[in-house]
Amino acid sequence: MAKDDQPAKDLVKAASGQSSVQELSPGGQQEGGEMPAPKVNKSPVHGLWALTNRDLRKWYTNPYQLIISLVQPVVWMGLFGKALNFSTFISSGAPPAAVNQIMLSYFGTTSYFSFLVCGMLVFIVLFTSAFSGMSVVWDRRFGFMNKALTTPVSRGTIVMGKILQSVSRSLIQSAIVLIIGIALGMTTGSLSVAGLAGTFLVIFLVAMGLSALFVMLSLQSSDWQTQMAIINLLNLPLLFASNALFPTRIMPGWLQDVVKLNPVSYAIDAIRQLLIGATGTNALWVDFTVVFGFAALFSAVGVVMSWRLLKK
């Protein structure tokens, strides 16, 4: 059959159930000079990495964003942590041993600054996670979300991409805050490799849970003002109704009950036990169980809700 009869060949192949894809020449082109159609990678892992890396690239290519995000915890540690020295208030006329005993009974450690640094590690996670939802809002406003929804990537993968980019940022920023805290005078006598590994596992879990929460609240939002209002509504109560700045024992009874319901408190309690050897409010396994359950629950709920709420 002549070369001009190629369409007829294809029809015969199609009718007989054979593949109608034209054979490639040794140079990689199809007969007739046409290039083969590009292969589409439909792997969920590939889609998850592409979406996560897209958001991370906007962050690590803009160093000013990283610097600004670190200013607030550094100010809290450098000014608030150093100025509010409870040991100085207690030590008027009291022997050092008595001061240390009082600090241990209330703070679980003799250094309030070290107590605060552990709280700041979750502080930076809380505020980083809050803005993971803003990424969804901006993607919707600028049309990227509609494009992502037309690709083979599932809606759950889109949500997990937003969560993972926030978790990655939280881990990096927490490591930087920890290094700054050590440089400013955090006690390092109890530091260990196992303690550091456990600390960043806790940070990973609480960041995943908080990021899933804020992404879930932004799935149908296209108004950045509404999302900012949600951030302000949740962030400060989650921070101040926790043990990040002050021990639970000095709070009023009703607030202590609220602190016990706040997953942020369990994350901070575990970090203090792991990093500075502080006496914990709860057993370490209890803290891990609560933080793990919080992360698993909200991640699952966020993915399930994306199937219904994440639309063009």
Give a brief outline of the structure.
The protein has helices spanning 6-15, 44-60, 63-83, 86-90, 96-107, 112-130, 132-141, 144-149, 155-184, 193-216, 224-240, 253-261, 263-275, 284-309. It has 312 residues and is an all-alpha fold. It has one domain (43-309).
Which labels suit this protein?
single chain, 312 residues, mainly alpha, disordered N terminus
The total beta strand count reads 0
- Overall average pLDDT: 78
| Structural Rg | 27 Å
Helix content: over 70%
Overall morphology: elongated
Total of helices: 14
Give the low-pLDDT segments: 1-28
- The termini sit apart by 50 Å
* Structural class category: mainly alpha
Tell me the count of domains.
1
What can you see in these coordinates?
The structure is a single chain. The chain is built from 14 helices and no strands. Helix 6 (112-130) runs antiparallel to helix 9 (155-184) and helix 6 packs parallel to helix 10. The chain starts with 5 loop residues before the first helix and ends with a helix. With 312 residues, the protein is an all-alpha fold. It has helices at residues 6-15, 44-60, 63-83, 86-90, 96-107, 112-130, 132-141, 144-149, 155-184, 193-216, 224-240, 253-261, 263-275, 284-309. The chain has one domain (43-309).
